[in-house]
Design goal:
Blueprint (H helix, E strand, L loop, with lengths): L10 E5 L3 H12 L3 E5 L3 H10 L2
Length: 53
């Protein structure tokens, strides 16, 4: 297995959109990935959306 192989990621799933999850979502989206977030309820989704810039 060579060190030259690269994995292209263009879709990402994130469980939870708290402080860490929202940061991961933001960086991945800015890099051009399609991002899906799973949260426990609508209020948590709204709070996560507010954190993502």
């Amino acid at each position: 297995m060579g060190g030259d192989a690269k994995l292209e990621i263009n879709r990402l799933g994130v469980a939870g959109c708290g402080l860490m999850g929202s940061g991961i979502v933001e960086v991945a989206a800015k890099a051009g990935c399609d991002v899906v977030v799973c949260e426990v309820d609508a209020a948590a989704v709204s709070a996560g959306r507010a954190r993502v810039g």
